[in-house]
Amino acid sequence: MPALYGLIGYPLSHSFSPAYFKKKFAELRIDAAYRPFPLAGVNEFVPLLKANPDILGLNVTIPYKESIISYLDEIDEVAEKIGAVNCISIKKGTKKGYNTDTTGFEQSLVPLLTLQHTDALVLGTGGSSKAVAYVLDKLGVRFMTVSRYIAGGGITYGELTPEIIAQHKLIINTTPLGMYPNPDGLPDIPYDAIGKDHLLYDLIYNPEETKFLLKGKENNAAIKNGFEMLKLQADASWDIWMDQAW
User: What is the rounded distance in angstroms from the CA atom of residue 237 to the CA atom of residue 85?
Assistant: First the structure.
């Protein structure tokens, strides 16, 4: 029976991963499959594994990157520091969590950074934002988190001013606002304060240009969507799975 890999999250109406990994398996002639597993609640994780004992690895997406940790046997050092997991390997029944979002984000961001990008705003406080914060700290970029409610020393959207936007030349959206199938959403920030020295990075990849990115583009800012990050984190997940399985 072929080995099984997959993606857990909810909802999973559109996912890049199945086709991407199917192609990799075919190219390397590996007898394995990759499937989406939408879980209405993280408590469905254990029944999923019982029903599919051939699962050797899983990617984890919204909204379970943090809550999945309590269901794992081990956690990688980086993922433990972040407090979020987006990749799980399963070997001889042992479930170990990793965070490959850090690899994908760092490798896709670094080539875009200039001397202007000393301060960043991280929009959102979910699991993905924690990976972003880890990378920014590693790179020596000062950052402030922004959310609907005060959390962890950050500020709220209502507290954002044009002056704060002007000071923070790197703005990263880690929220699902603007993601398919609801592309009209966007973070509530003072877009008029964005200029040509800004870089707007959106972890969303579908659509290619979210309303958030389009607002930046209108003001001559550099923009980047999450597609390259997605591919890079997928490759990092692949390396983990292949190292432990083959």
Answer: 11
DSSP string, 16-28: SHHHHHHHHHHHT
23-34 burial, b for 16+ CB within 10 Å, e for fewer? ebbeeeeeebbb
Which residues are known catalytic residues?
Answer: 65
Single-letter amino acid code for the residue at 79? A
Angle between helices 227-245 and 17-27 (to 10 degrees): 50
User: Can you give the pLDDT of all 246 residues of the chain as single tens digits?
Assistant: 789 999 999 988 777 898 999 999 999 999 999 999 999 999 999 999 999 999 999 999 989 999 999 999 999 999 999 999 999 999 999 999 999 999 999 999 999 999 999 999 999 998 899 999 999 999 999 999 999 987 667 999 999 999 999 999 999 999 999 998 899 999 999 999 999 999 999 999 999 999 999 999 999 999 999 999 999 999 999 999 998 754
101, 128 Cβ separation under 8 angstroms: yes
CA distances 150 to 41, 67, 137, 172, Å, are 26, 21, 20, 18
* Tokens (6 digits) for 206: 């579908």
Residue 81's CB: how many other CB atoms inside 10 A?
A: 14
Strands 119-123 and 142-147, sheet pairing:
parallel
Tell me the residue type at 90: I
